[in-house]
């Protein structure tokens, strides 16, 4: 009886210990299963230090980062949105530009007068210059317009409008190639690589926002896109880009610390896009203009390092259309630093400044490829010369 009294509590004790151990061991597994439907923790792409011209070596401990989604906090994470189709956004943006047609109205107001004197021609020239058309283009257009009006002897508003449209369209130059490289192409190794798009411009022009809007535009065109947050010197830039990426389900490669090497982030973004078979990788760059030498070194290194994985297909300059001649000075600096292939004009919500399209194309010799006409996520569209001129003269 004494043996049984001792044995039973011992057995119960052993069983109790085993139960406790089992609960402890199984608890983590149950938590993981319970979180299966939630966004996983995603490591960011750390940017290892590398010298100018050197290919970044390796990644942070735990392996080189691959194609990753950067999640938002659970309280702010939106569902994936469906971007507006390209065709419908073009119609909406045309209408918006036409409704602010103060530029065309001012021109036609002068040209429709019964008698156009020297003072009227000067008023017309001032209107063109105020619209940021530029001195050279304005002089050419005025000379052509005065000659044509004098030779044709026309005075009715419709005829003058048609003549003005023809001359303005010639200044905008519809023959320029405005297509964006948005498909994989063969590299030097005869392998297909994603189209790499570098986006440059000073802070405050809407550069990072433009990268997000461009991603939405490409997603609406059924392109697979990866974003690279290589503006590592502005703390909010990577977070802002991650927000844009989350909204349309586009993965973002970013550094895990402030001030990381931008070229390394760009390289990781291109490598991740390449390995995932994406169509396009868009790299956001820093927009500092404190000194041209530093800007040249940084952008040159980004382009050089990123192109070791895939050739650079596009370098787009983002300009604020409302900054006028200051924007043109910025454009000159960037054109000296990197070979630009296209321009994105933001904040073109008032056609009174529409002449900047002509001025910047004339200055840089590269086409305006996209325009932004508002703050909405889909307020970015491919630039159409005919529609733009028609909207100016509406």
Automatic annotation (TrEMBL):
Domain SRP54-type proteins GTP-binding: 367-380
Keyword Oxidoreductase: no
EC number: 3.6.5.4
Keyword Translocase attributed: no
GO biological process: SRP-dependent cotranslational protein targeting to membrane
Reactions catalysed according to its record: GTP + H2O = GDP + phosphate + H(+)
Topology in membrane: Peripheral membrane protein
Main location: membrane
HAMAP family: FtsY
Subunit-level organization: Part of the signal recognition particle protein translocation system, which is composed of SRP and FtsY.
Assigned protein family: Belongs to the GTP-binding SRP family. FtsY subfamily.
Entry-linked NCBIfam families: ftsY
Protein name: Signal recognition particle receptor FtsY
